[in-house]
Amino acid sequence: MRQITGNKLLVRALKEEGVDTIFGYPGACTIDISDELYKQDDIRVILPRHEQALVHEADAYARTTGKVGVCLVTSGPGATNLVTGLATANYDSVPLVCFTGQVARHLIGNDAFQEVDIVGITRSITKYGVTVRNREDLGRIIKEAFYIARTGRPGPVLIDLPKDVMCELGSPDYPETVNIRGYKPNTSVHMGQLKRALKMLKKAKKPLFLAGGGVNIARANAVFTEVVNKTNVPVVTTIMGRGAVATEHPLYIGNLGMHGQYAANMAVGECDLLFSIGTRFNDRITGKLHAFAPNAQIVHIDIDTASISRNIHVDVPIVADALEAVTKMNEYVEPCETEAWVKQIQAWKEEHPLTMKSREQMSPMDIINEMNRQFDEAIITTDVGQHQMFVTQYVQINEKKQLVTSGGLGTMGYGFPAAIGAKLGNPDKTVIAISGDGGMQMNIQEFATAVLEELPLILCVFNNEYLGMVRQWQKLFYGKRYGMTNLKAGALFRRTNGEEMPEYTPDFVKLAESYGAKGIRVKKKEEIAAAFEEAKKNTKTPTLIEFIIDPEEMVYPMIQPGGTLEDMIMDC
């Protein structure tokens, strides 16, 4: 039998797994893999400008296509630069397979140049991590990695590849099947538990669906909408669950939690049955645990056994994939008598509608409303901060529009590279990235990637000259002591005790143009529509639109950290 190197087997394995795009950054320990990739034409290789951006790009590629995102980086700093992106993907259940170069086996543990124990470093933020010690195990490990990444609760897997192992000759065969002892993801629904939950749903006077990110991950949106229509049960979502049903659906209330809609938080507090699907019940949606859904029995469907009753005790646990469970629900659900309950929720909506005060100056709501008007079909990515919360409150999401955001880790610098990954995976769709002026600068080098790949992204920067979300906390809870949040502060600011500040740095429009992209600055609400229309004309390069926002704009409602869902600050 003709033997081949581990490098050749890796490329063969990627093709067998249906990989068509890999996000890679080269180095000494992966140069032989880069050489093998150079010799073939089936797999597109994307060269970002930083490994953190690289893994975010693979992440959004996976979220928007349903495929596994694939990364290739070198050892040492190349590998450690993946850490934030791995944690982001782990929290949000994104299937990634990340290959890291490693020094030769005899150098491991000797503090060799660019050697780190990346498997040890990332053990708590990956679904599985392993260093390949023997060439004969390489094919099996790669096959297992893709299987683990995409099955059960999806997540990132890391494979560390010592340089000498990859150069060694071995079998050219790649396994066709996987059999991992101790890893048998649940693929069925316990019908006894599900029918018990559906009986409770039928009897409830104030039932409420809580849809988390698991509904979107499982692509269960359409069948879940059918269940909602049949039962007439209202729906709240987590931020990651937004879009589980269309945001225009008459039974959709809104997001719950720290910046959730008043009616949504009130509904959770008053419901007598909370039927939750695909959520971890993290602190940003629950507030104080003892006061969360105090009157409700709780049903929890989740693919991850460890997520059930971890934060909130549930009455009916169901371990199942969201699509499988909701499909079975759709066969058995019956209409529920919810007219009075829906009327009460509507009254809460009318009492405190989700809106922003009308004013002369351009507001984030003005920008997002115009975006809703002009773009019927789009993928919208966000960074993290106030702008993210505004988007999750006001952007319309339905079967033609998808929201991609870092929900669990809250990673600044995610939005721009995520847009690149989404566009590479969905070239025929409009992709819009929304960032703050702080987060945009964290991976701004990716302009080079976007320009060279000829990606007509629309990049919206909400520039309020501050790190807005932290500033909001400082304004509300820290006596307006804006420490470390003013992005114009520096030597001049200190020298003059805050009386003088320079012009904002950078000039985003000039910076975009320096990369070969287009830049537009918008200062008035009357200019918003024209800016989007101009951006749509640009079909080969990104367009950055800088929106000048008042630093005093605040995200409401807001619940003070450690508060309850009923302790909402409606305005200030």
Automatic annotation (TrEMBL):
- Co-factor requirement: Mg(2+); thiamine diphosphate
* Enzymatic class: transferase
Pathway assignment:
Amino-acid biosynthesis; L-isoleucine biosynthesis; L-isoleucine from 2-oxobutanoate: step 1/4; Amino-acid biosynthesis; L-valine biosynthesis; L-valine from pyruvate: step 1/4
Keyword Cell division (UniProt)? no
The Thiamine pyrophosphate enzyme central domain is annotated at 194-328
Q: Give the protein family.
A: Belongs to the TPP enzyme family.
Q: What is this protein called?
A: Acetolactate synthase
State the species of origin.
Answer: Ruminococcus turbiniformis
Q: Which gene encodes it?
A: ilvB
